[in-house]
Design a protein that fits this description.
alpha/beta, four-stranded parallel sheet, binds phosphoric acid mono(formamide)ester, globular, 11 helices, 15% strand
Amino acid sequence: MSLSVKHLLGIKDLLPSDIELILKTAEKFKEVLQRPIKKVPTLRDTSIVNLFFENSTRTRISFELAEKRLSADTINFAASGSSVSKGETLIDTAKNILSMKVDMVVMRHSATGAPHFLANHINASIVNAGDGINEHPTQALLDAFSMTEKLGNLKGKKIAIIGDIMHSRVALSNIYCLTKLGAEVIVCGPPTLIPKHIETLGVKVSYDVRKTLEWCDVANVLRIQLERQNKPLFSSLREYSMYYGISRSLLDSVKKDIVIMHPGPINRGVELSSDVADSKQSIILDQVENGVAVRMAVLYLLAGKKDNLI
Ligand code: CP
């Protein structure tokens, strides 16, 4: 079994069978990660560069750990402190690194489409670790993996994505991933944070967080991305929190055991209160844990190794 794509640029490009293959492979790697020795020789002869042009905590560490668990040689590149600050272009940076015989590139960039642009200019496989407001495919895959662990097969399951849908690459990748897996998806937030015509992607729209919570099995709550909003799209964080934040009292009043997720980083007290984020209903840290196994699966499958994965 192999993927239908050479790069992982977005979930949009994947077939449902690709997503299922990645999730099945991740299950095997999750089992590896429970062992006393959490390392396999699978990518022993593979070099991977992590090109991060934008800040990250979870994704960068998770990819690096996944690569190390697979015994790949890893190189970490951060734009700050590199020759990018002297004016070197993205393509020149990548070509220089790849001339040192690097096989795969994991890339985060604030510009939408940056990994797609690079994929047209270099031969190595590229994994998009988040590009602008476009996609964050491995986040959607680890979200789907975590939901499946809680709920089983996602076909027909009701998933709400709540918050800043407009500026969220996690929202778009989740929508593609969940609809391809047969889940029902609703997006919920203030009208100014929901893109026009989003229904064409096969999702429902709600502006009422209580009704959304009453409907859903899972609430994937997203961060308010103030850094991407160049003009105010709601009056204040306090008002946002009052109308769209998930508090303990709101969740209790819904009287339903909803699974709470968040890709991180959380603005505590804005989109989620701390007692919800840290509650038994929350699987936020499971998402982070599962990210390593999912990224191992993606790297393994893109590397196209024929050997047994473990
Ligand atoms: N979820 C996520 O992408 O977090 P980081 O920005 O910390 O990588």
